[in-house]
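Task 17 of the worksheet. Students: predict the tertiary structure of the chain below and write it out as structure tokens. Keep your answer in the requested format; marks are given for formatting as well as content.
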Amino acid sequence: MRFDIITLFPELFAPLLTSGVTRRAYDSRSVDVRLWNPRDHAEGNYRRVDDRPFGGGPGMVMLAEPLEKCLQAIRADRAEAEPAPLVLFSPIGQKLNHAAVQAWSGSSGAVLLCGRYEGVDQRFIDRHVTAQISLGDFVLSGGEIAAMALLDAVARLQPGVLHDEGSHQFDSFNPALDGLLDSPHYTRPEVWQGQAVPEALLSGHHARIERWRREQSLTLSARHRPELLVQARSAGGLSPEDEAFLSRLPASGPAGN
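Model answer:
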């Protein structure tokens, strides 16, 4: 898949593309990332890419013309029969979640527009943007962090990126967990500063370990994200054993071993 990033700050992406396990996806081009600066497509000595908003007010607005020329260069370079979707990161977009990440991870990619300043000229949005994405109800100084979040989430789902191919199957929000939160994790030593690893994890009894993890997942979801239980229940993801455990769960307090 290929992601073309329209950004005024392409240098921000260097650490993402060269660090951590996800760099395997970028090195192998299973996730092909290409960076495009709209300033390269602006005119005049100053290569201006923004101007004051009509109607007054603070801040600047990204100009439509350099963005369109940049997009045209991308379209020509991609040479696709069906143009890739153009995604804008903005507050009105759909919140990014696991289901959306899975869908993008199986797609052929997209063009990602990282807005800056007060935003992008609405006429460019109306003419070219096909989807909008939000990370949540807060405002960033630009769309680059949101683009990197999407790229990282997509890259780690590609074959050969993670050491254990099945590890992402048990991430929080994954269908393998019925969309619930993942259980806690422990490693050596068995006792650290007086805190011991839960005995169930040391038992070597696979069914018992699996059940412990399931109950921890249910407990964490009930305490921190109860809406996930509602969704899992409506989808038929909770077993009678799950429901019986939830009925015995205290309203508050630490989870048992």
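Marker's comment: The chain has two domains: 2-155, 167-248. The beta strands are 2-6, 32-36, 50-51, 61-62, 86-95, 109-113, 131-134, 191-192, 195-196.
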